[in-house]
Structure formats: C-alpha cells, structure tokens
Write a structure and sequence with these properties.
The complex is a heterodimer. Chain A is an alpha/beta fold. Chain A is 45% helix and 12% strand. In chain A, helix 4 packs across helix 5. The chains are: A alpha/beta, B mainly alpha.
C-alpha cells in the first residue's frame, strides 16, 4: 500500500463512542497501515441535515476538512457513512481535488488487507450469526459512488469482511435504518428501524459501519426492550485481532454485547 | 393555496441536472420509498413533485419535506433518473431561508457554525479516552 493515508474519525467516534476511534486505531496499527490525522478536523458535516439546511455551510466546511487532509496525504478514509458521503461528494465537485481519494475504511481494508486480516486473527468469532447492515450512504447514489467504487454495486463488502472473522453473515435487502427521521418524526424513524431489524430474522447481533446507524438501532432496540447487541465492525475486528475486551469501549453501548 | 407559476422553473434552474423536468409522475419513487410504504399519508414523493409542478410553493411550509430519509431508493429506481433527493435538499434549503426549518436540526446547524461539531463531547467519553490511553492501549 503506497498511499499516504489520512484518518478522519468524525464526530460520533470521537465524542460519543470513543471505543470506535480506539478500536480503529488499534486495527490500523495491527495491520501496519501508516496514517496521519489532524486534531483540527471538524464535523464533516452531516450529509442529511446540515446539507439540507445550508448547502453553503455544508460545502465550505467539508472543503476545509478536505484541504487539510490533502495537505497530509493522498487518500483519506472515514469510519462513518455520513462522513464518507459528504467528503466524497464534495471532493467529486472540486476540480483541485480530482487526484485525491476519499474512501470508507471498510473499503480500504477490503481492497488491500483481506488476506492479512485472515492471517492475523487471534480470536475468531466462530459460531456467531451476525446481520450485516451496510447503510444507505455507503453506496448510494450508486451512479456517483460507482465512478470510483464500481465494486460496491456488486459486492456486499461488509458481509465478506465479517465472514473473515469466522462468523455467519445474514444479508437482507438493503433498507434504511431510519436514523435521519429521528430528528423530525421519531415515530416514523422507529417504525423504519423496527422493520429493518425484523428483516434480519434471528441473529446474535447486528453489525454496522456507521455510528449513526449504530446509535439509532440501539435506541430503538432499547425502546423495544430487546437485548440484541449492535456492533461497530471495527470493534469486532479489533477484538479478533487481539484488543483486550475491556479496552474496546463496550461500556458505551446501550445494549451490552454479551455474546462475545 | 397560493400558486406560483414560476416555482417549477425556479426549482429546475437551481438543480444542476434540471432532472425534475423529466418526471412523468409514474409513481415509482413512491412505490420504492420506505417512508411512503410505512406511512403514505405522511410522505409521498410523487405527490411532492406534483406540488412543485403546479406551483404550490406552500409545500415549503409542510412537514412532509422533512420526512425523506435521503436513502436514495427513489433515485435508484426512477426510470427518468429524476434525483428526488436533490430536489428535497433544495426544498429544505429554501424552507430554511424562509424560516420554516424544524427546531432540532436547526440546533445542529447552529452548533456546527459555532463550535465546528454537531455532537457535544461527553465528559464520560473524554475520561474514558484519557484512562485507556493512560493504560497504554
């Protein structure tokens, strides 16, 4: 891997679910991926609400993050679908960022590190059955995303990446988690999430690659009094690569991940 | 209902691809929309485009435009490649400029403008980070 990587953690991983950030950094170190990051990155910003309310703010703030990242390396990766969508979309519309790449880390690892991950697993998750939820903003709008990530149309990357850890992956037709509506119509957002969760059937947990999907699924499951754990993929990967269970940040989950 | 005969042109002009003009009201957007399928009385993408077509500018005052999850199912399945999500973004931006934006998302915008983040750091998260790093990870 010759790229000079830049890691963009995003708001939720730094401010609400610090274990997401910590697990990610552990994974990057274990897989010997050199990266830089910036203390002064700000909110990506959110591709649903900030973009809706003020396109100008959304674009200008996103551009500042991109320009900062470009000064540090050639490929930026995010660990959030929202950050990915914002930064990729703004980059695509900026002539001076044409050669700069924006990826979701799950793609970076899928593309470059599958074999290495397999060989470095010390705690396999054999026997577990996890539902995978890639999330809308990871691969849509497909016409725009396909310009640089054509594979995402054909492959469920998260399914392949979770199977690497030894688990069975349950894939249901792509559907929305309902998170964006949680700010404007909570009842609808809960109904959407419940429908999505039901589509998975009986599983040991739900695995996501977006902190917003994570947060929304957990809130709805708690509301429904269901003890179904939700996992952020990079937590599970870190665990399988040897990170001490007490350092993953599971205490920030609202539903304790009892199954591992 | 007040009608603005120039509303459709105004929206079309501001959309880069002018794709709203390609809509022939087949309703595929609605049939694939997860929100419509759960609650058709609350959100109907086909109907929203129809309102723009007839110049019903008051659509900007409705709660409906804030119920799209931007999941892109509509755009992915539209035979005319009408980018409904871009239309929703534009309607929301216009509604915001006229003071109709819902309160909670507006608070996020205020926070981003003021502090750079829409999520406040929790003291618990801050403490955990310091402790884990101190342990040595």
């Amino acid at each position: 891997m010759k790229d000079n990587f830049v890691y963009f953690p995003g708001c939720l991983a730094l401010r609400k679910f610090p274990g997401f950030d910590y697990s990610t950094r552990f994974v990057l170190d274990k897989l010997e991926i050199n990266y830089k990051t910036a203390e002064d990155f700000v909110c990506c910003p959110d591709p649903v609400w900030i973009r809706s309310l003020s396109y100008k703010d959304w674009k200008n703030i996103g551009l500042k993050n991109l320009e900062k990242a470009k000064s540090l390396g050639s490929t930026m990766f995010t660990i959030c679908n929202g950050c990915f969508e914002t930064l990729y979309t703004i980059k695509k519309s900026s002539a001076n960022l044409k050669s700069f790449r924006v990826e979701h880390l799950i793609y970076t690892l899928w593309k470059n590190k599958k074999n290495e991950i397999k060989s470095k697993i010390v705690v396999p998750l054999n026997g577990k059955k996890f539902a995978v939820h890639e999330g809308c903003h990871f691969k849509r709008p497909s016409a725009l995303i396909s310009e640089e990530f054509g594979e995402l149309k054909k492959v469920n990357i998260l399914k392949e990446m979770i199977e690497l850890l030894g688990t069975e992956a349950i894939v249901a037709k792509d559907e929305c988690c309902g998170y964006p509506n949680s700010l404007t119509d909570k009842e609808l957002s809960y109904l959407l999430a419940k429908k999505r969760i039901e589509s998975f059937g009986e599983v040991d947990g739900i695995v996501v690659i977006c902190p917003s999907c994570f947060s929304h699924f957990e809130n709805v499951l708690v509301h429904e009094k269901r003890e179904l754990p939700v996992y952020f993929y990079f937590e599970l990967l870190a665990y399988s690569l040897g990170l001490d269970k007490n350092k993953i940040g599971f205490e920030f989950h609202r539903i304790k991940p009892l199954t591992i | 209902m007040r009608l603005n005969p120039y509303f459709k042109e105004e929206i079309s002009r501001e959309l880069k691809d002018h794709s709203i003009l390609m809509c022939y009201q087949c309703g595929k957007c609605s049939s694939f929309c997860p929100v419509f399928n759960l609650s058709p009385e609350k959100f109907n993408p086909r109907k929203l485009i129809e309102m723009v077509y007839i110049g019903a500018e008051d659509v900007l005052k409705t709660e409906d435009i804030w119920r799209c999850t931007t999941c892109y199912e509509c755009f992915e399945n539209c035979p005319q490649k009408v980018n409904f999500v871009e239309i929703i973004f534009l309607l929301r931006t216009k509604a915001t400029e006229r003071g109709y934006a819902p309160k909670i998302p507006m608070q996020e915008l205020v926070l981003v403008r003021k502090e750079g983040f829409s999520v406040q750091i929790s003291p618990r998260a801050k403490k955990w980070r310091e402790e884990v790093i101190k342990i040595g990870g």
